[in-house]
């Protein structure tokens, strides 16, 4: 029956998986809700192809993972959500394919993630088109994407982002000596929001992009395509931006 709704609940030792399969001709939906060990100071390593990802720092002492998976029933049966531990790292892979499954077309499952972790958590994300929003974390953060839009709010620690065309938005309320930013993009634009107290050295390299700043910068060397400058005296953090055609704006 086309509009039939199938619901089942499977209890696992590490949490609960709730599957809501809305039966349509080619597309079903699964809802997975699970908790997993992740102590403060650990790392969340996430792999996703498509689907929104929201990661929030909280006072909890583990990780809560809420995932909505969409795809054909065949794909959902053969491409699983894999969650496992590797030392102090929690690995979440949205597309762990059954190696006995020989079909290679449409071999990904679109997955929306809502994840809560301890505030002292580092993020290591590998994405394709998934928009990523990270809020309230303290750690060392790394993102590799293709067209993913990436936004960090209220984070502390180094941030490194590599993307092809996705927009990068980093917003910091506090500033310290370890607040380094490293963004490498081809055509994506970059917005960096910093407090008035921010200081650091800036390295900017581009082919046709532009660097704009609402905060006064002191130019030390270079030209429009490649320059070194100082923000607020220059001591402390390092801000590195490399683009082909993407532009960078530094805002308060």
In short:
The protein has 252 residues and is mainly beta.
Please explain how this structure is put together.
With 252 residues, this protein is mainly β. The chain has a single domain, classed as Pectate Lyase C-like (3 Solenoid), CATH 2.160.20. The protein is built from 1 helix and 23 strands. β20 and β21 form a beta hairpin. The radius of gyration is 21 Å and the shape is globular.
Low-confidence segments: 1-24
> Helix/strand/pairing class, anyone?
mainly beta
Q: What summary fits the major beta sheet?
A: 12 strands, mixed
Q: What amount of the residues lies in strands?
A: over 45%
Through-space gap between termini: 56 Å
Helix content: under 10%
Number of H/I helices: 1
| Arrangement of strands in the largest sheet | 1-2-3-6-9-5-11-13-15-17-23-19
Tally of domains? 1
SSE topology:
Layout: E1 5-12, E2 15-22, E3 28-37, E4 43-48, E5 53-58, E6 62-71, H1 73-78, E7 79-86, E8 89-97, E9 110-118, E10 122-127, E11 132-135, E12 141-144, E13 150-153, E14 159-163, E15 168-171, E16 181-185, E17 190-193, E18 200-205, E19 211-213, E20 217-222, E21 226-231, E22 237-242, E23 248-251
What are the main properties of this structure?
252 residues; mainly beta; Pectate Lyase C-like; eleven-stranded mixed β-sheet; 23 strands
């Amino acid at each position: 029956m086309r509009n039939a709704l199938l619901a089942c609940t499977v209890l696992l030792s590490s949490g609960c998986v709730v599957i809501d399969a809305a039966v349509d001709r080619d597309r079903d939906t699964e809802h997975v809700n699970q908790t997993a060990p992740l102590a403060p100071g650990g790392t969340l390593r996430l792999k996703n192809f498509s689907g929104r990802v929201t990661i929030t720092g909280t006072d909890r002492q583990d990780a809560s993972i809420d995932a909505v998976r969409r795809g054909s029933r065949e794909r959902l049966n053969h491409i699983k959500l894999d969650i496992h531990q590797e030392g102090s790292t929690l690995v979440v892979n949205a597309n762990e394919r059954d190696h006995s499954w020989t079909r290679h077309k449409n071999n990904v499952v679109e997955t929306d993630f809502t994840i809560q972790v301890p505030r002292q958590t580092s993020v290591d994300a590998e994405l394709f088109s998934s928009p990523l929003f990270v809020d309230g974390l303290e750690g060392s953060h790394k993102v590799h994407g293709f067209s993913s839009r990436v936004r960090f709010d209220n984070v502390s620690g180094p941030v490194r982002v590599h993307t092809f065309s996705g927009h990068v938005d980093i917003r910091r309320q506090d500033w310290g000596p370890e607040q380094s930013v490293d963004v490498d993009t081809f055509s994506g634009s970059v917005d960096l929001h910093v407090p008035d107290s921010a200081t650091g050295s800036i390295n900017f390299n581009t082919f046709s992009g532009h660097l704009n700043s609402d905060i006064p910068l002191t130019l030390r060397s270079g030209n429009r395509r490649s320059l070194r400058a100082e923000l607020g005296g220059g001591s402390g953090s390092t801000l590195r931006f490399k683009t082909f055609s993407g532009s960078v704006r530094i805002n308060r």
